[in-house]
Design a protein that fits this description.
By secondary structure, the chain is an alpha+beta fold. The chain is about 25% helix and about 20% strand. About 5% of the residues have low confidence. One of its GO terms (cellular component) is cytoplasm. It is an enzyme of class 3 (hydrolase). Its EC number is 3.1.21.7. It catalyses: Endonucleolytic cleavage at apurinic or apyrimidinic sites to products with a 5'-phosphate.
Length: about 270
DNA sequence: GCGACAG
DNA sequence: ATCTTGTCGC
């Protein structure tokens, strides 16, 4: 795929103030409403934990063998080789099958700075996505989208760069306030809205994402799983973001596209 | 000044 | 993110 907003490339040589200004521009360009051409219900479940038949098969529905109509979901994740460079892996999935994998790499020029993650990892991600030949219907990135001080987290930055629908999936909350406390274990499937607080650029109370309990143990009192923190990147609403993530979480905490990109990135290290 | 902060 | 084995509980 191709960068369509090169003026938004995450140049790590900019000053911190320039980076933040760029993020405000990106947020102003981003759309946090549904604007894509596929049906979330057509996102086929990824590979199952076992050799069990897919959900559709076990219900006895006829599996459509025609390729090309099911949405292409692309998971993106990074791994690091010391402090020198990062590798980015993009794994494209359609109908629960891997249809393409792409790799990218870039020198690390910045330390990790909360709020500026895209300037540390962006180059490698762009490198990987530029070498991807299929056109993704939606990207699943590791990190925040709209849950960000200036509404321009990694998922928003990358989504706007390529003008492609994108969602962010994080394991921890960067900012914002959950409508309900997340301390106690949530039941599987639970969704808790994340509202903007005064550390953010948006009016207080704006729903900028959700905590989503993709998986939970039968007895959460003794051992429980933390919820995912999901937020829209670009061209997807907060609610639809959860729908997309839910459709790709197949028996594990993390979405299948993310897990596959994660393991591919690890392989790229050696 | 202190705390809080995706990966 | 990364350095790393076993271990507890489903």
């Amino acid at each position: 795929m191709e960068v369509v907003r090169p003026e938004f490339l995450p140049d790590p040589d900019r000053s911190r103030e320039e980076m933040e200004d760029l993020q405000r521009e990106i947020a102003a360009t981003a759309s946090f409403e549904d604007d894509f051409g596929f049906d979330v219900a057509d996102v086929e479940l990824g590979e199952s934990p076992t050799d069990a038949p897919t959900a559709a098969e076990s219900v006895g529905e006829q599996v459509t063998l025609t390729d090309g109509d099911a949405p292409v979901v692309v998971g993106v994740d990074q791994a690091f080789v010391g402090d020198d460079y990062s590798v980015s892996a993009a794994v494209a999935i359609r109908d629960g099958r891997v249809v393409e994998r792409a790799a990218g790499r870039a020198e690390l020029e910045l330390p990790y700075i909360p709020g500026l993650l895209a300037f540390r990892e962006g180059d490698a991600i762009v490198d990987a996505l530029e070498s991807l030949s299929v056109e993704p219907d939606v990207l699943v990135l590791d990190g925040s989208g709209r849950i960000h001080f200036r509404q321009a987290g990694l998922a928003t930055h990358v989504g706007v760069l390529f003008d492609v629908p994108a969602v962010g999936v994080a394991k921890n909350l960067l900012c914002g306030t959950p409508r309900e406390p997340l301390d106690d274990p949530l039941p599987e499937g639970a969704r808790v809205a994340i509202e903007a607080d005064d550390s953010m650029d948006v009016p207080d109370g704006t729903v900028v994402g959700y905590a989503y309990q993709s998986r939970q143990y039968p007895n959460p009192e003794q051992r429980h799983v933390n919820p995912l923190i999901v937020s829209p990147g670009h061209r997807v609403s907060a609610e639809t973001t959860v729908d997309v993530v839910e459709a790709t979480c197949t028996g594990y905490k993390l979405p299948a596209p993310t897990r596959l990109a994660d393991q591919y990135a690890d392989d790229l290290k050696d």
